[in-house]
Design goal:
Helix content: 40-55%
Radius of gyration: 24 Å
Strand order of the largest sheet: 4-1-5
Number of strands: 5
Order of helices and strands: HEEEEHEHHHHHH
Structural class: mainly alpha
Length: about 200
């Protein structure tokens, strides 16, 4: 999956807004939303919330997880644990980028929140690189991806398959140094040839 596809999926998350206009229901492919009543909170897809905010038609209500105390706790837990902690939202980076980029004035302590989210991302990316390094050094053939988000997995996608392929080739080359009588059955089962 490409980054823009992941962002597209993240934009379909439901966000809460407070419109400053009144309008009947709107019917979209993803469902119906409304009626819109000025001053009354309602839920819409994130992409619609961003579009309405850009047209100054609403105020975006920050998600529950987007507050200083919650994010500081997540950051501390992420630092302490050697495993990846479960994030409050599968698309936290996309949601944060869109909301903080469009409606920073609607979010209390927006600059600090942006910094904490970036810190969490950096900690998780560091853990991911360390995990990949350990996987490569141990010659492992698989790794667990518990609690990683789509965006985080996608960030290592260009490197990981090639690295795993190289590890597999190294393993196969080391098997070729075993006497031919022991090596024949392994290569014939894997579809390889002894002459390559």
């Amino acid at each position: 999956m490409d980054p823009y596809e992941i962002e597209f999926i993240g934009e379909n998350r439901i966000a809460s807004i407070i419109p400053n206009f009144s309008y009947n229901k709107i019917y979209l492919i993803c469902g119906e939303f409304g009626p819109f009543r000025a001053g009354l909170p309602m839920n819409v897809p994130l992409w619609l919330a961003v579009m309405l905010k850009q047209k100054q038609k609403c105020r975006i209500v920050p998600p529950e997880w987007m507050d200083m105390e919650t994010l500081e706790n997540i950051k501390e837990e992420e630092k302490k644990s050697r495993f990846f902690t479960k994030m409050p939202n599968e698309h936290y980076m996309i949601e944060a980028k869109l909301i903080l980029g469009t409606a920073a004035e609607d979010i209390p302590h927006a600059a600090e929140i942006k910094t904490i989210i970036k810190d969490i991302w950096d900690i998780r990316m560091s853990k991911l690189r360390t995990s990949m390094d350990a996987l490569m050094k141990s010659g492992g053939s698989y790794g667990r991806l518990d609690h990683l988000t789509m965006m985080e997995i996608n960030s290592v996608k260009p490197l990981l398959p090639d690295a795993m392929d190289q590890l597999y080739r190294i393993k196969m080359m080391s098997r070729k140094t075993i006497p031919a009588s022991l090596n024949t059955s392994t290569l014939s089962q894997s579809g390889g040839s002894q002459n390559s």
